[in-house]
Amino acid sequence: MSESKLLRGTFVLTLGTYISRILGMIYVIPFYALVSEIGGALYSYGYGQYTIFLFISTLGFPLAVSKFVSKYNSLGDYYTGRRILKSGLLVMTLMGGLGFLVLFSFAPILAEIVLGGSGDQHGNKVEDVVLVMRMVSVALIVVPIMSLLRGFFQGYQSMGPTAVSQVVEQVVRIAFLLGSSFIIMRVLEGEIATAVAFSTFSAFIGALGGLGVLIWYWIKRKPHLDEMLEKSRPAAVMTTKEMYKELFSYAGPFVLVGLAIPLYQYVDQLTFNRAMVEIGKGAIAEELFGMINLFVPKLVMIPVSLATAFSLTLVPTITNSFTSGDFTILRRQIDKTFQICVLLVLPAVVGLSVLAYPAYASFYEISEAGGRILQWYAPVAILFSFFTITAAILQGINKQKFAVISLFFGFIVKMIFNVPFILWFGEIGAILATALGFTLSILYSFWMISRHAHYKFKLFARRSFLMSIFAGVMMVSILLVNYLFSNVFTYEDGKIYSVILLLVGVGVGAGIYLFLTYRSHLLERLMGNQLEKILSRFKRKQVKEQ
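and the corresponding structure tokens:
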């Protein structure tokens, strides 16, 4: 396959992934208007369990199939790839079915645990949580199969089926989620629990849509795939046991890294309500849990996704430099990756923290608790970003096991400190425990990168300090804007005023930060060719207008 076609396929897959993520962030706003924090907490109970069970059911199998098929296709052995597809579909069907049965059966026990053993005290009933968990469990029957087919197509360097199926799955899921919630809550005037149950069932409906797209691609491309199969070289001689041993070596430990945030949220699921009851906040525990586990993270992940996307584009070149043994270029690329992350995430973190109250009010509703949680949660975004990037760099230098060790250390810290921190600091304690866990993971990853890539942090630290100064100036400017507006109105005067404060604050803050980074030539040094292209297009447009 030509390099240009491969790059085009990668772009298509990346585009599809981020369209899906953006849709996954936006739908929460109307969903919140329909079910509020209590419904959000109930949704998190079901979806949190589903995420863990889905991981257990797949165990990185689809990603492993992609690498497995790609390897043997490159050797001209198309038969072995087809063999793993047939066997893998059976395994995913069995694992998905087993995951469905276990989650469906154990839902009553899990519901008691996540509610803290106090029944109806928080707002949601045990039977409501059981219903939601059982409704979402049905998706486990389909999603593993769909994921495997995506991995198979990617093994042929065909990214279109995955990208299109991701977008279709998300569109169908969100349409069913919002449509069913609206009908139940507004038309039928039903219960929140019923609306949320159908909302989680949308994972199954969306998966059917995504699977349908993949089946369509399979039917369309099967003649070509069969033609390649006929030209296949003699199949590799390996037993089924040997085949699966190699397959799971590809799945590798790095797959665990993608589970980091869901694992941390799962700890909150199992401990948050119980700890809040102990400090006398049981009556509002679920509302706060909905904010911490669903609504606030959706806002925080917006800058994380964008910044991580920019930074991770450099990771393939890091892999090439490490493989070729050019450590000078490798260290320069690691430096650039870290600095771009700070450049993009730091101002977003500072801005979101300073504008937390109007931001929460703009997207959801005026809430002192929501604004406070967002204010504390926003800085964790930079930790999420660095955890993802350092894990990817460790993968690039063939040290994946250290990414898993870092996750393990951080996760243990989260489990140990979550309850004590909630007892000491209330709901903010859960955020502090998350921050502490990710900080430990990142420090360990920094150490491993420094050790195995011979990387020094001097330039990164110096430029990060400079960017911190710029972010500080930006913060002061936003605070000044808020102070000036406070003489006229505040975010508490209504949603429209919150939106005005948010837009003006973001505009002023972003403008000042961009000006400072541009005038200091920092933006040019880090963004390089991309910045030159943007400026040249802008100048050409001005010339045409004149």
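(Above: one complete record from the training split.) The chain has 22 helices and no strands.
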